[in-house]
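Dear colleague,

Following up on Tuesday's group meeting, I ran the structure prediction for the two-component complex that the binding team flagged. I've pasted the input sequences exactly as they went in, so you can double-check that nothing got truncated or mislabelled along the way. The structure tokens for the whole assembly follow below. Feel free to forward this to whoever is handling the docking comparison.

Inputs:
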Amino acid sequence: MAKDLVKMSMLYDLYGGMLTEKQRELFTLYYEEDLSLAEIAQNEGITRQGVRDTIVRAEEALLEFEDRLHLSDRLSGIRLSAQKIAVAAYEVGEINRRNYFDTRVDAYVREIIEATRVME
Amino acid sequence: MAKDLVKMSMLYDLYGGMLTEKQRELFTLYYEEDLSLAEIAQNEGITRQGVRDTIVRAEEALLEFEDRLHLSDRLSGIRLSAQKIAVAAYEVGEINRRNYFDTRVDAYVREIIEATRVME
């Protein structure tokens, strides 16, 4: 059970709603609160092995959802495009500020950069 | 079983990978090929009621996935932002073409509009 924090957090963000309440609880303590298996076991009054089994099952479920649906891949593609858009809009803003001082362009550029935020 | 084509197609696009092969097959014939329940029953050599039950179960599963994960809502928000970006970029392009003839701005505008396509 190597802890791949970035990947698991992303998958949990997408598919956490499909897990059981118990899986979500232990997964969050382990991945978000960063407690150890032993600490979780003590807090929850279950064995370390029990905690481990539940988290492993949750991880496997999240990986299987991604394998079936590829929504994390899809959102990564969107995120990448949003970054490209923000960079290009920023460049347009700079060109405008250095050469044309057109307030309409400035407003549209700000609108574009603002709209990329929902995609991050 | 009222046929909500737009909604069901969107949910199928997101969550179809979670359905069984049989559910996917009958769902596609009904929603994408637009065959009637009776036609599907005849083609598949099963009863009309059997076809109906399978499709209803598939619809219920898709609705439950959305209820748990809200990914369709999330993607709708992204799609809306992508449209706003494309409109704003188009306006910048028009302002540029009418006033400044700056080829760099033109190129960035095209890049922005292009990048919104992956979000549609």
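The mean pLDDT of chain B is 95.

Cheers,
M.
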